[in-house]
């Protein structure tokens, strides 16, 4: 069964590129441009969430904190992404399992996802 990865980013170019890469890598990918919709998921959580810090109307760190507080989603790995390296510390403080700076290397992203999903790449 394919591992599910969800991408939450308000940049359509990133959504398209990362979705294509991950699907090519053998993942079942879903995406949203609104981080708040991630909080509405009550069943069928993804196996991993790739979450942008700055999205219009939503701070990914708030979404991350909320997901890590909830019993059913607290163990889901969350990799936060941002164009600003200064935000790595605050991403970790919000409970993110890892951080990637944009633009990121696709190989590095695939390796991090494989690591958190217990797969070898």
Number-wise, the strands total 7
- The CATH architecture category equals 3-Layer(aba) Sandwich
CATH superfamily: Response regulator
What's the CATH C level?
Alpha Beta
Strand order of the largest sheet: 2-1-3-6-7
GO biological process, one term: phosphorelay signal transduction system
InterPro entries: Bact_response_regulator (IPR050595), CheY-like_superfamily (IPR011006), Sig_transdc_resp-reg_receiver (IPR001789)
Organism: Pedobacter duraquae
Modified residues (4-aspartylphosphate): 52
If you had to describe this structure to a student in words, what would you say it looks like?
Keywords: Phosphoprotein, Two-component regulatory system. Residues 4-117 form the Response regulatory domain. This is Response regulator receiver domain-containing protein. The modification 4-aspartylphosphate is found at residue 52. This protein is of the alpha/beta class and 121 residues long. The chain has a single domain (4-46, 59-116), classed as Response regulator (Rossmann fold, 3-Layer(aba) Sandwich). Helix 3 links the parallel strand 6 (78-82) and strand 7 (98-101). It is built from four helices and seven strands. It is 33% helix and 23% strand. The mean pLDDT is 92. A five-stranded parallel β-sheet has the order 2-1-3-6-7, sandwiched between helices. Strands 4-5 form a two-stranded antiparallel sheet. It is globular.
């Amino acid at each position: 069964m394919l591992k599910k990865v969800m991408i939450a980013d308000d940049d359509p170019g990133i959504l398209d590129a990362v979705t294509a890469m991950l699907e090519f890598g053998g993942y079942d990918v879903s995406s949203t441009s609104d981080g708040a919709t991630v909080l509405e998921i009550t069943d069928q959580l993804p196996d991993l969430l790739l979450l942008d810090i700055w999205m219009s109307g939503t701070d990914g760190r708030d979404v991350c904190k909320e997901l890590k507080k909830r019993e059913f989603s607290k163990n889901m790995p969350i990799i936060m992404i941002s164009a600003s390296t200064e935000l790595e510390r605050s991403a970790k403080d919000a409970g993110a399992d890892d951080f990637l700076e944009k633009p990121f290397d696709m190989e590095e992203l695939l390796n991090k996802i494989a690591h958190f999903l217990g797969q070898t790449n």
